[in-house]
Amino acid sequence: MFDRYEAGEQAVLVHINFTHDGEWDDLSEFQMLVSSSGVDALQVVVGSRQSPHPKYFVGEGKAQEIADTVQQVGADIVIFNHTLSAAQERNLEQRFKCRVLDRTGLILDIFAQRARTHEGKLQVELAQLRHLSTRLVRGWTHLERQKGGIGLRGPGETQLETDRRLVRDRVKAILKRLDKVAKQREQGRRARARAEVPTVSLVGYTNAGKSTLFNRITEAGVYSADQLFATLDPTLRRIEVDDVGTAILADTVGFIRHLPHDLVAAFKATLQETQEASLLLHVVDASDERFGDNIEAVNSVLDEIDAADVPHLIIMNKIDSLDQAEPRIERDEEGVPKAVWVSALSGQGIALIFEALTERLSGTMVRHQLRLPPSMAGRMQSKFHQMRCIVSEEYQDDGHLLVDVRLPQTDWYRLEKREGNQLGDFIVSD
């Protein structure tokens, strides 16, 4: 869509630290992003500034240094680890004589490569179009000319206006299709709610090991790799949890610092699985020195999508990369599990996750021994089996069923209500 220099795979990276706010972005993470996009980084140019330069983002001297580096190494593209304005991109491209990409454009490009499902591709295209709509004015040199000539007279619409209208129309069409997807997802969630099936959603910083953990728990065979944003498309699988029964485990897209707002908006349908989950499994790379910052970054995105209040359980992953780290459950002052230390790759501690899930999802458990008359023994026995709550059962000589059940208190109250509050009459011991 743009008249630009041909983009290549050889890049010069630019990383500027701004000292005025004390925030030093992680250069190694930026290099991982570039590597994940399939680009070969020839050289990294670093620098420090108090604030961005309005014309070039970097200063005049640094801009010339980058231009000289591009000429020396023969790079096809310059990638900034920052968000650039449309004017800054245009000015830098004119100065460098090659394509310039900012952090948002880089992440969008990675998402475009990773999207596999129809929904994922629509979401990425929507984010790209929203990003593109603010930059149309710099992409062409002829956009302000009005159409003219045979077959082009009539509307008096400039090329720029035409392109903006086409982008708006395409955005509307995508939103319509994503709205349909969202309604289908909502139907699925309502069906699970009616069946009282809890949903557990995996969240975490990108490359924390969510998909590896998902595969270890569900044996789903979901694509996983040691790269950023390996997973874009949400995957749901059924799991069985003791004292809870069936639950749904959802694998979602990873988060990152400075995640573009266009992406958060585009992936609204996907992230709704996170908003409406019964419990979040916040997967953390325990071997990352900055895991504390990563947790804060994820919490920030959760707050942005209104999921900050959803109960969560931290999964400290990759303990196989740590010295003397053992699988264990950490508990709060009330004895409730708050963190589980595991290795999704080796399988260490996976059983502890299920143990913690049982405690976090089941709530208060009750145990009753019932003596049910023949008139209702068969029907109730079938229900108890469906709920997977039978500890022991025995038919007596007179046809009565002596059954010992253990189940969440909420399930017991719900069952009692359905049976007209008469189950309590058959309790022989608790």
UniProtKB/TrEMBL annotation:
<comment type="function">
    <text>GTPase that associates with the 50S ribosomal subunit and may have a role during protein synthesis or ribosome biogenesis.</text>
</comment>
<dbReference type="Pfam" id="PF01926">
    <property type="entry name" value="MMR_HSR1"/>
</dbReference>
<protein>
    <recommendedName>
        <fullName>GTPase HflX</fullName>
    </recommendedName>
</protein>
<dbReference type="InterPro" id="IPR016496">
    <property type="entry name" value="GTPase_HflX"/>
</dbReference>
<comment type="subunit">
    <text>Monomer. Associates with the 50S ribosomal subunit.</text>
</comment>
<dbReference type="GO" id="GO:0005737">
    <property type="term" value="C:cytoplasm"/>
</dbReference>
<dbReference type="InterPro" id="IPR032305">
    <property type="entry name" value="GTP-bd_M"/>
</dbReference>
<dbReference type="Pfam" id="PF19275">
    <property type="entry name" value="HflX_C"/>
</dbReference>
<keyword id="KW-0460">Magnesium</keyword>
<dbReference type="InterPro" id="IPR045498">
    <property type="entry name" value="HflX_C"/>
</dbReference>
<feature type="binding site">
    <location>
        <position position="231"/>
    </location>
    <ligand>
        <name>Mg(2+)</name>
    </ligand>
</feature>
<feature type="binding site">
    <location>
        <begin position="251"/>
        <end position="254"/>
    </location>
    <ligand>
        <name>GTP</name>
    </ligand>
</feature>
<dbReference type="InterPro" id="IPR027417">
    <property type="entry name" value="P-loop_NTPase"/>
</dbReference>
<feature type="binding site">
    <location>
        <begin position="343"/>
        <end position="345"/>
    </location>
    <ligand>
        <name>GTP</name>
    </ligand>
</feature>
<feature type="binding site">
    <location>
        <begin position="317"/>
        <end position="320"/>
    </location>
    <ligand>
        <name>GTP</name>
    </ligand>
</feature>
<keyword id="KW-0963">Cytoplasm</keyword>
<dbReference type="GO" id="GO:0043022">
    <property type="term" value="F:ribosome binding"/>
</dbReference>
<dbReference type="InterPro" id="IPR025121">
    <property type="entry name" value="GTPase_HflX_N"/>
</dbReference>
<feature type="domain" description="Hflx-type G">
    <location>
        <begin position="198"/>
        <end position="365"/>
    </location>
</feature>
<dbReference type="GO" id="GO:0003924">
    <property type="term" value="F:GTPase activity"/>
</dbReference>
<dbReference type="InterPro" id="IPR030394">
    <property type="entry name" value="G_HFLX_dom"/>
</dbReference>
<keyword id="KW-0342">GTP-binding</keyword>
<dbReference type="Pfam" id="PF16360">
    <property type="entry name" value="GTP-bdg_M"/>
</dbReference>
<dbReference type="GO" id="GO:0097216">
    <property type="term" value="F:guanosine tetraphosphate binding"/>
</dbReference>
<dbReference type="InterPro" id="IPR035647">
    <property type="entry name" value="EFG_III/V"/>
</dbReference>
<feature type="binding site">
    <location>
        <begin position="204"/>
        <end position="211"/>
    </location>
    <ligand>
        <name>GTP</name>
    </ligand>
</feature>
<keyword id="KW-0547">Nucleotide-binding</keyword>
<dbReference type="InterPro" id="IPR006073">
    <property type="entry name" value="GTP-bd"/>
</dbReference>
<keyword id="KW-0479">Metal-binding</keyword>
<feature type="binding site">
    <location>
        <begin position="229"/>
        <end position="233"/>
    </location>
    <ligand>
        <name>GTP</name>
    </ligand>
</feature>
<dbReference type="GO" id="GO:0005525">
    <property type="term" value="F:GTP binding"/>
</dbReference>
<dbReference type="Pfam" id="PF13167">
    <property type="entry name" value="GTP-bdg_N"/>
</dbReference>
<comment type="similarity">
    <text>Belongs to the TRAFAC class OBG-HflX-like GTPase superfamily. HflX GTPase family.</text>
</comment>
<feature type="binding site">
    <location>
        <position position="211"/>
    </location>
    <ligand>
        <name>Mg(2+)</name>
    </ligand>
</feature>
<dbReference type="GO" id="GO:0046872">
    <property type="term" value="F:metal ion binding"/>
</dbReference>
<dbReference type="InterPro" id="IPR042108">
    <property type="entry name" value="GTPase_HflX_N_sf"/>
</dbReference>
